[in-house]
Each structure stands twice: as structure tokens, then as C-alpha cells.
Specification:
Layout lengths: L3 H10 L2 E7 L4 H17 L3 E7 L4 H6 L7 E6 L2 E7 L4 H16 L1
Parallel strand pairs: 1-2
Antiparallel strand pairs: 1-3, 3-4
């Protein structure tokens, strides 16, 4: 469990951050998460990953305006770059991040 401040600091201190919002009761979340983490790890070495359990951290979810799960927030260079909720494919997320990420780290 992380505080809003800890997550905000991670976003400020790291070039690329993914915040993954899910809950233990969400089957889609559990199916998607390992695939997404593997794809992020394989494609982007600089990514910091933060997981938020919305059943415990409602305050964190509300702070980031997350009201549905799973939700993925991608922050590049301290700014929210991508927000995907519910229906998303791993390929779609990777494809949308790839170019800006490569430009940013080159």
C-alpha cells in the first residue's frame, strides 16, 4: 500500500511510470496484469510500475480519478500520457507508448 505522495514522487522521479489499478475481486485485472507487466518489461527497460488495490486504496484511486478497474495510467516525464480502462489489449497499450517512449529516452 502506497500513499498518494509516494506515488506522486515516483511519477516525478522516474522517466516512465505505469500505475495499475485493480482489486482482488476483478478477474479481468488478474488476467491482464501479468501479460501487461511482461510486455512492459520486455519493451521498456526504464519503466517503474506501481500497483494500486482499489479495494484498500480508494483515496488513491479517487486522487487519480479512477472509477473503474482495471485502469492503467502511463506517465512519461512526469505527465499523464495514457489512460486505459476496462477493455484494453496489451498490444494496444505497448503500441501507444512505444514511439513517445523511444523519443524520450534517445
Amino acid at each position: 500500500m502506497q500513499t498518494i505522495e509516494e506515488i506522486e514522487n515516483k511519477i516525478k522521479e522516474n522517466l516512465a511510470v505505469m500505475v495499475y489499478f485493480s482489486a482482488p475481486t476483478c478477474n479481468v485485472c488478474h488476467a491482464l496484469k501479468p501479460k501487461l507487466l511482461e510486455a512492459i518489461d520486455a519493451n521498456f527497460k526504464e519503466f517503474e510500475i506501481v500497483s494500486v488495490d482499489t479495494s484498500i486504496d480508494q483515496e488513491v484511486a479517487a486522487h487519480f480519478s479512477v472509477f473503474t478497474i482495471p485502469t492503467v495510467l502511463i506517465f512519461l516525464d512526469g505527465r499523464e500520457f495514457l489512460r486505459k480502462s476496462r477493455h484494453m489489449s496489451v498490444d494496444e497499450v505497448i503500441r501507444e507508448i512505444k514511439r513517445p517512449y523511444e523519443i524520450m529516452i534517445s
